[in-house]
Amino acid sequence: MEEQQIAIKELARFVVDVIADKKGEDIVLLDISSQTVIADYFILCSAGSDRQIKAIVNDIGQQVKKEFGIFARSVEGNADAGWVLIDLGDIVVHVFNPDARAFYDLETWWHEATVLLKMQ
After folding, report:
1. Using the 8-state DSSP alphabet, how is residue 77 labeled?
2. 60-73 pLDDT, tens per residue?
3. CATH H superfamily, domain 2-119
4. CA 103 → CA 12, 49, 97, distances in Å?
5. Residue 101: C-alpha distances to residues 1, 61, 95, 108 (Å)
């Protein structure tokens, strides 16, 4: 079980790096494992445009498949709406435009989660 947790955390940090490489902003990695069974980690980030949201989402899918052999369970939302969710199983990635991120304010909803990483 602990080895699986290490692998999941490694995947989460890899996704953070992919987002950073695509110039995602305000990246936050939250450990939500003690608050819910839906996932162990949330990754939140902002993107300045619909095009950048699409680029981040596409690159996450491609890189995670290439490096870990993992496919997203589902991808919900769309860049035009300002929010895309990528379900990687134990990791859920939220890519927002700034307005959608402020509106949904997931950091406040999950305020009891442990912040493992925060990049501006």
Report:
1. E
2. 999 999 999 999 99
3. Beta Polymerase, domain 2 (3.30.460.10)
4. 24, 16, 10
5. 33, 21, 8, 11
